[in-house]
């Protein structure tokens, strides 16, 4: 059963179409990630689900109810904001208790609920402090606790990790994921960070310019991108695209290997003129051009550093490289994937 | 060897960079302000204390020391006690009215509507218009014969010509009038303060409150108002200081009348000390502002310090 579904949602701000006919359904207990570059409409879409923004056309269904005209507080959602939106003049305890107080929950019950949420997130010792005395990671947990006490049907998270430093972000990522797993609440998570999306999402919905490009598991998004946008947006370095037959041929840098590293059957060979190489510890990124085509085509290769010694690949050299045919993707003129090559 | 030559060279240039030292530059830049305060505020203040302890009048300018007699005389006067009460009523009343108008105005101006920029520019007019001009205009509106307010109310059928209120002639109404005019002057300032405060509340916090189930009133009084309280408090303290010491509106509109119903400390001090020439008693009257202002200043300084921590 789907916990949340959006049916042909369109949102216009004046003449600008921010959300263009998106239909998406999120299953019960699922961790759905909305991924896209900044300005793609992912946050607007989340705000429409929350009820903070009203769609121009289309229906939002939460549980089994159409909630188009229902205010945010009655939608059974809880939201964590990018900068957390904690109330600076309240103590942490009052912050977490606030959603319960607005619902006129009896005080004794509020205390139990707050204690439970605080314990779940390990912030019991912070309850008497105020938000500005907390670190970024602690604030984020308070925001989660505040979202949790309402027993929401859906968690909506809007880039909750973007205010943390890189190291903290990695640990917070797994924390949120584990936490979601434990409470089992349906979650919609907005991010522009593909690492977060790949690492946390049960499924990923890729958005661009207000359009839904592809919905699928991380593996499907990565291995079977539906179009050129998804192919180049997900993956670092992005998928190589080579103009071919009026369309494009795509292959991942890590599948573009020296000819001798691949067995013989079913490969496509290229001549690779190497111009530059970066050593990143575990891997080596090699930049260069494909030779022997109508026009020179820039591509990248990502080689396992342990298997390809530095002396083997030097700038200025030409090497025979190859891609397994099963790893080649063909995109037509419009950028849609045509078929497995 | 090279290093030594460079050292001597630099020494010769040293005084060129005197102004780069924050201590010297800071003192230099602050000195005009400090001089201004010492000469135009500090000196008259000390002079006022001196006068208040003497029997100085403009007819008999002698510095004969009389102790606290001026203060005890003043305290025994009914007019003075009435004036003291009036000053509080005038100050508190106009601050509250100004704040209410300011809050409403700010909420209205936050909503987008056509012509909002023009309205935002026009709204500061009461503050920008010279106080004398504005008060004369108000005086005409409250005039016993030509009052445009009464004219409108009569035209609307709310009142009749026979029971039309005499705005500046009736004690309570006169107090109401000076309060209204002062609030009218203060409210653009309040609007600006509220606007600054409200727009500084992060959108995330407001959205969070909406999602958490706070309606309009709860969002206003549990989230926005506490969050903008610091900046509003500073505004109110300033407004209070200015109003408590002000005499211009009262002087121009009612001159303290009718029968001292709108008399305030500033105006009374002016009348006794300058108009009647009893400088010593005028100074004593004015110095009664000091304890109130002192408390306010302490409040303000504590407030600012707490914000810094």
Task: Describe the structure in your own words.
The complex is a heterodimer of chains A (341) and B (309). With 341 residues, chain A is of the alpha+beta class. Chain A has two domains: 2-228, Rossmann fold; 236-340, OB fold (Dihydrolipoamide Acetyltransferase, E2P), CATH 2.40.50. Helix content of chain A is 25%, strand content 35%. Chain A has eight helices and 19 strands. Chain A has helices at residues 42-50, 92-102, 107-121, 136-148, 166-183, 194-200, 218-223, 228-233, and strands at 2-13, 16-27, 31-35, 57-62, 65-66, 77-80, 154-158, 186-191, 203-208, 211-216, 240-244, 247-251, 257-258, 267-279, 283-291, 297-304, 318-324, 329-331, 337-340. Chain A has a six-stranded mixed beta sheet, with helices on both faces. A five-stranded antiparallel beta sheet of chain A has the order 13-17-14-15-16, with no helix packed on it. In chain A, β14 (267-279) and β15 form a beta hairpin. In chain A, α3 packs across α4. The mean pLDDT of chain A is 89. Chain B is mostly helical and 309 residues long. Chain B has one domain (78-308): Orthogonal Bundle (MetI-like fold), CATH 1.10.3720. Chain B is 74% helix and 0% strand. Chain B contains 15 helices and no strands. Chain B has helices spanning 2-13, 22-52, 69-76, 78-110, 116-122, 125-128, 131-141, 148-156, 171-199, 203-211, 216-245, 248-253, 265-275, 279-287, 289-308. In chain B, α9 crosses α11. The longest helix of chain B is centred in the N-terminal third of the chain and has 33 residues, at 78-110. Chain B is globular and about 70 Å long. The mean pLDDT of chain B is 86. The interface between A and B is medium-sized, with 25 and 18 residues.
